[in-house]
Write a structure and sequence with these properties.
By secondary structure, this protein is an all-alpha fold. The chain has 17 helices and two strands. The protein is 79% helix and 1% strand. The C terminus is likely disordered.
Length: 495
C-alpha cells in the first residue's frame, strides 16, 4: 500500500512543495522522477536479494527503510533533501514489492494463491487510485509534509505485524552468489530506457539525446543477455523465458500498464482542467474504477482458480479495450453518470489482468526465483506505465499540434505567432486554456472552448490507441496458462 500510494499521492503535494521550498518546475519533476527511476531500475535486483537472503528479511528492511525515508522527507527543508530521500524511498520500495509476492508465493498453496494475489491486487489498485483523494485531503487540511508522515505509523504497524506473523521461506536451491556484472548491465539498461521515456516529452522523440539513451539501453540489454548465457549463476536465468506463459505474462503486464496508466494520466487532466474539479473531487469521480478493482480483484482470484487464467485475462483486456473506446467518446459536457460507466468498466477489466498476469509470472517461475519473478512483474508494470505516459503523450501532443491552429482560426480568434502557438499547444495538452491576463470575457470564453475541444480530440485519439493496445493484449492473453510451479509454493522450507 505504501509503495503504490506514493506513486500517485505525491502529484497532489507537488504544487505545495514547490511553493513552500521555492523550487523550480524541473526540481519538482525530480520528486517524481527520482522515485520512479530508483524503483524501476532496482526491482529485479531487489527480487534477487529476497531469493538469496529470504523474502521476510528483505520485506522488513524495505518497510523500515521506506517509512524512515518518508519521515525524513517530511522533515526536509530543501528540495535537494526531498529529492534525495525520494530516491531512497524508491530503493526501499523496490525491496518491498517483489518480496511481498515472494512471500505470498511461498506461503499459499496453488489452490489459494490466486485469492491471495487477488487481495494483494485489490490493495495495489485501491492505493494507486486512492492517492489523489488522500493526498488532496491531507494537503488541503493538514500540510504537504503529512503526505509523507502518514507512512511512518503504517510502517511501524507493518513491521510489528511482519515480525509476529511472517515466516521465512527458503527454497532448497536458493542462489548462493551474486551476478554483479549482470546487476550493473541490467541496471544500466533499465536506467537508460526509463530515462529516455521520462525525458522524451521534453526533448522530443526525434531528438538525438532520446535515441542515444534508447540505443544505449538496447546495447546494455543485448550485452546483459549474452553475459547471462555464460555466467554460472545468472541474475535472471534466460531459461526462465522459455516458459511461453511466463513471457506472455510479462508482455501482458506491460500492455495492461500502457493502457491503464496512459489512459488515467489524461483522465485526471480532463476532470481537473476541463471540468474544473478539485483534486479531491477528481479522485472521488474515479471511485467507480477504484471500487471495481477492490471488488473485482478477489473475485478474479476465485474465477482464475476455477477456470485458469486464459479466459479471465482475455475477458479482462476485452473489457479494458471497450472501456478505453468509451473514454474516447467523452466530451467537454459529458455527465458524471456516463463517465462512471466507463471508469467502472475499466476497473472491472483491469482486476483479472492484475491478478492473473501476476500469478502467471510468479507461478510459472521456479520457487528459488520467485523474487526475480516478482521483480519482473513489477518492472513490467513500471515500464508499461512509463511507456503509456510517454507514447500516448506523444500521440496527444501530435494531435493537438495538428488541430490547434485550425481550430483557433475557425473560432475567429486573432492569429498567433509560431512561438505563441507552441506555448498555447503545451497548455492545451494538459487541458488548460491559454487565456492571457485582462482578456475580455467573450474572447476568453472562445479561447477556453477551442482549448477544451482540441484537448478532447487529443485525448480521444490517445484513448483509441490505448484501446488498440488492449486488443493486442487479448491475443497475448491467449498464450497464458496456470503456473506450472505454483504447487511448490506452500511446500517451501520454513527457517
Amino acid at each position: 500500500m505504501m509503495v503504490a500510494l506514493d506513486g500517485t499521492i505525491v502529484a497532489i503535494a507537488n504544487p505545495a512543495i514547490q511553493k513552500d521550498l521555492d523550487a523550480s518546475f524541473a526540481d519538482v519533476q525530480w520528486i517524481t522522477n527520482g522515485y520512479f527511476l530508483a524503483l524501476a531500475v532496482t526491482l529485479i535486483t531487489a527480487g534477487k536479494l529476497g531469493d538469496r537472503f529470504g523474502h521476510r528479511q528483505t520485506f522488513l528492511i524495505g518497510v523500515v527503510g521506506f517509512a524512515a525515508a518518508s519521515g525524513a522527507i517530511g522533515l526536509s527543508d530543501s528540495i535537494a533533501l526531498v529529492v534525495t530521500f525520494r530516491v531512497f524511498q524508491g530503493l526501499f520500495g523496490a525491496l518491498l514489492m517483489p518480496a511481498a509476492l515472494g512471500l505470498l508465493r511461498a506461503t499459499f498453496p496453488a489452490e489459494k494463491l490466486n485469492m491471495a494475489i487477488g487481495i494483494w491486487g485489490m490493495v495495489i489498485g485501491a492505493s494507486t487510485a486512492g492517492g489523489p483523494i488522500i493526498g488532496g485531503l491531507l494537503v488541503q487540511h493538514v500540510s504537504w509534509q503529512s503526505v509523507f508522515f502518514i507512512n511512518v505509523p503504517v510502517g511501524i504497524i507493518a513491521l510489528v505485524l511482519g515480525l509476529a506473523i511472517l515466516k521465512d521461506h527458503r527454497a532448497e536451491n536458493a542462489p548462493r552468489s551474486f551476478d554483479l556484472p549482470g546487476i550493473a548491465l541490467l541496471s544500466g539498461a533499465m536506467f537508460c530506457l526509463v530515462w529516455a521515456l521520462i525525458k522524451a516529452p521534453a526533448w522530443g522523440w526525434g531528438d538525438g539525446k532520446t535515441w542515444m539513451f534508447l540505443g544505449a539501453s538496447v546495447v546494455c540489454f543485448l550485452v546483459f543477455a549474452l553475459w547471462e548465457s555464460k555466467v554460472k549463476e545468472p541474475l535472471i536465468p534466460l531459461a526462465l523465458f522459455r516458459s511461453v506463459p511466463l513471457s506472455a505474462g510479462v508482455v501482458l503486464m506491460v500492455l495492461m500498464a500502457i493502457a491503464f496508466m496512459g489512459g488515467l494520466f489524461f483522465v485526471t487532466f480532463y476532470l481537473q482542467n476541463v471540468h474544473a474539479m478539485s483534486p479531491v473531487d477528481a479522485g472521488l469521480h474515479l471511485l467507480p474504477l477504484t471500487g471495481m478493482m477492490i471488488v473485482g480483484s478477489p473475485l478474479a482470484g476465485a474465477v482464475i482458480t476455477k477456470l485458469g487464467p486464459r479466459v479471465p485475462l482475455a475477458g479482462g483486456m476485452l473489457l479494458t479495450a471497450v472501456a478505453m473506446y468509451g473514454m474516447s467518446t467523452l466530451e467537454t459536457d459529458t455527465g458524471s453518470g456516463v463517465m462512471s460507466i466507463w471508469f467502472a468498466l475499466l476497473g472491472l477489466g483491469l482486476a483479472p489482468v492484475m491478478v492473473g498476469a501476476t500469478e502467471v509470472i510468479v507461478g510459472n517461475a521456479p520457487m528459488e526465483l520467485s523474487g526475480v519473478a516478482g521483480g519482473l512483474q513489477q518492472a513490467a508494470m513500471q515500464i508499461g506505465g512509463s511507456l503509456g505516459t510517454a507514447v500516448l503523450g506523444a500521440v496527444m501532443a501530435s494531435k493537438v499540434d495538428n488541430d490547434l491552429g485550425g481550430n483557433w482560426s475557425d473560432a475567429g480568434l486573432p492569429p498567433l505567432k509560431p512561438e505563441q502557438l507552441d506555448q498555447a499547444s503545451e497548455a492545451v495538452q494538459v487541458g488548460s486554456a491559454p487565456v492571457p491576463p485582462h482578456t475580455p470575457a467573450g474572447i476568453a470564453e472562445k479561447i477556453t472552448g477551442v482549448a477544451h475541444d482540441t484537448f478532447i480530440s487529443g485525448m480521444s485519439m490517445a484513448c483509441l490507441v490505448a484501446a488498440g493496445v488492449a486488443v493486442v493484449a487479448i491475443l497475448v492473453a491467449l498464450l497464458t496458462k496456470r503456473g506450472t510451479n505454483a504447487e511448490a509454493g506452500a511446500g517451501a522450507a520454513h527457517i
